[in-house]
Amino acid sequence: MVGLKEELLKSIWHAFTALDLDRSGKVLSHNLCTVLNVPHDPVALEEHFRDDDEGPVSNQGYMPYLNKFILEKVQGNFDKVEFNRMCWTLCAKKNLSKSPLLISDEDAFKVWVIFNFLSEDKYPLIIVPEEIEYLLKKITEAMGAGWQQEQFDHYKIALNTSREGLSAWELIDLIGSGQFSKGMDRQTVSMAINEVFNELILDVLKQGYMLKKGHKRKNWMERWFVLKPNVISYYVSEDLKDKKGDIVLDGNCCVEALPDKDGKKCLFLIKCLDKTFEISASDKKKKQEWIQAIQSTVSLLRAGSAPPHKEARQKRKELRQKLLAEQEELERQMKELQAANENKQKELEAVRKQLEAAAARAAEEEKKRLQTQVELQDRFSLELEREKMVRQKMEEQVAQKSSELEQYLQRVRELEEMYKQLQEALEDEKQARQDEETVRKLQARLLEEETAKRAELEKWHLQQQQTIQMTEAEKQELENQRMMKEQALQVAMEQLKQLELERKEALEQYEEVKKKLETAANNTKSWKDKVAHHEGLIRLIEPGSKNPHLITNWGPAAFTEAELEQRQRSWKGKKATSE
Q1: To 10 degrees, what angle do helices 186-200 and 105-118 make?
Q2: CATH architecture, domain 206-306
Q3: Cβ(40)–Cβ(24) under 8 Å?
Q4: Distance of alpha carbon 174 from its chain centroid, rounded?
Q5: Could you tell me if 298 and 255 are in contact, meaning their C-beta atoms sit under 8 angstroms apart?
Q6: Residues 180, 152: contact at Cβ < 8 Å?
Q7: Where in this chain does the entry annotate a coiled-coil region (predicted)?
Q8: Is the pTM higher than 0.85?
Q9: Is residue 166 a contact partner of residue 159, using CB atoms and an 8 Å limit?
Q10: Closest to 87 (Cα-Cα) out of 22, 23, 18
Q11: What is the chain's mean pLDDT, rounded?
């Protein structure tokens, strides 16, 4: 009842401030008693003001009478819209702006009632910027338009610089000016205001047309349903003139979805203690929306909570009160800090004076100290000169020692460099000896070859001696043969040298071929193992010739015996040609 009394007082306050209650107090009291269904007691009013002709502005005042004889007797069984319209009629003519507005008088009345719902609980009544933003957002959403946050922020900044909020008449002018509903026609704005009015003032949580099944005749009729926090009312049409009944809701009610039947779709069931109601929505979306809305309402009834918009308003007020309390606490702390700062300033001033006195004493003591310091400085100057001379001598000695040390270190670096050069010379000598040994072995091998060639030449020489013992005729022939053999020997020697070069090249090729054969043998072995593993019994042909190889003093020959015979035949053919 306290919340109801506060809501009533806001509307009465507008009428109270608009009327000359010295002449119209009795009329206002009579009208209030009529619309609030409170018994009117004119005698009590006369008794209240009998000793004072100044009326409400006197010590007696009108508000004590209003609280004691009217508001305390209100039971809640009255029409809120009719009550608000009576208060609006008394105050609108005096306060409503004369300039043309984009909203009708009926829309202005609804905005005025919404203002009383959202305004702060202090007089004169104002609506703060946060609630203005909330209301404008609701109207903009109802119009289906986009909210212009940046535009409102500019308006809010301009508003905060001049005042705390707006009065009811300034709010009506703001909405009626179309500043936040540009591009919308009067009908769209009116419908949006009416939708917000139904939600915030009439507690309409949801409304719309649906089909309802009768309890007696079992026929389906279209009805306009209106969901409120504790009841669902249904009417013939949306003008709410012909009411057909109520579905009273409590914590024991429940709602269930039903399958389609009897040609009706989107069915759901509302179960109450005494009755059950079958309802058909226009589509699945509407069906789900109504089920969720009714379930939410029943949940609020079970929890004993207020409707969502009232609970949200209370939370916003509590948040503002909390912020205000924090701001007041911050201001109090700032004042305490300021007072403490002033005290500190006084303390600092006293300390400054003490410091000035101490500074004067310190200056006197400093003067005496300076005199003593001058005397000590003269005494120490002599000692400093002597110390300077001693230090200069020591620096000269240190410089001399440093020069000697630098020379010693230079000598050490030179010795280290010589040691490195000796090491390199030893390495070079060692490498030269190794090269000499290699050359010596090569010379020994060449001597052996030369010995073999010499033995062959001696053999040829012996054959020549034998031919000398032949007849003169044969001698001449042999001489010719000898000349030819010498020429052949020269050719053979050249061919031998050529063969030697070819043998060396063949030996190098042999080494390369040997490496390639080893690599091929390894690859062949690996391949042979894989083939034997995967394919079965396969015999591979081993690389290399089946003929025996010739062996020389330096290893395997670079040619086979057949190649050697072919070359001998070639030499013989050349010899026969030359003879």
Answers
A1: 40
A2: Roll (2.30)
A3: no
A4: 41
A5: yes
A6: yes
A7: 309-530
A8: no
A9: yes
A10: 18
A11: 82
Query: Whole-angstrom Cα distance, residue 83 to residue 31?
Result: 9
Q: How far apart are CA 411 and CA 418, in angstroms?
A: 11
Q: What is the DSSP letter of 545?
A: -
Beta-carbon count within 10 A of 402 CB: 10
Cα 342 to Cα 336: distance, rounded to the nearest angstrom: 10
CA-wise closest residue to 452 among 392, 396, 496: 496
- Which residue shows structure tokens 């509903």? 181
Query: Residue 186 corresponds to which amino acid?
Result: R
Nearest in space to 135 (alpha carbons), one of 152, 118, 156: 118
Q: How confident is the model at residue 22 (pLDDT cuts 50, 70, 90)?
A: very low
Predicted confidence band of residue 559 (pLDDT cuts 50, 70, 90): low
Q: Are 132 and 165 in contact (CB under 8 A)?
A: yes
CA atoms within 13 A on the CB side of 391: 6
* 417/67 Cα distance (integer angstroms): 117
The tokens 């669902």 sit on which residue?
232
**Cα dist. 180→150, 156, 171, 414 in Å?**
11, 13, 12, 97
CA dihedral sign of residues 58, 64, 68, 73: positive
Q: Helix, strand, coil shares of the chain as percentages rounded to 5?
A: 70, 10, 25
**Cα–Cα distances in angstroms (integers) from residue 160 to residues 155, 328, 498, in the given order:** 9, 18, 116
Residue 1 pLDDT exceeds 70: no
Whole-angstrom Cα distance, residue 248 to residue 360?
Answer: 93
Q: How far, in Å, CA of 198 to CA of 205, rounded? A: 8
Q: Mean pLDDT over residues 505-533, rounded?
A: 72
- Residue whose structure tokens are 């100290």: 369
Q: State yes or no: pLDDT of 60 exceeds 80.
A: no
Instruction: Please tell me the distance from the alpha carbon of residue 334 to that of residue 189, in angstroms, as a whole number.
Output: 47
Q: Where are the beta strands (DSSP E) in 437-568?
A: 551-552, 555-556
Coil/strand/helix, residue 124: coil
**d(C-alpha 203, C-alpha 233), whole Å:** 12
Q: What are phi and psi of 153, to 5 degrees?
A: -60, -40
Q: Which helix (H) or strand (E) holds 274?
A: none
Largest CA distance in the chain: 197
Q: Report residue 307's pLDDT band, with 50, 70 and 90 as the boundaries.
A: confident
For the chain, what are the domain ranges? 1-95, 206-306
Contact 90, 30 (CB under 8 A): no
What value does the mean pLDDT take over residues 4-30?
74
Tokens in use for 84?
Answer: 């608000």
481's CB contacts (< 8 A; 6+ apart) are 467, 579
Q: What residues contact 184, with CB distance under 8 A and at least 6 apart? A: 143, 145, 178
Burial of 273 (0-12, 13-18, 19+ CB in 10 A): exposed
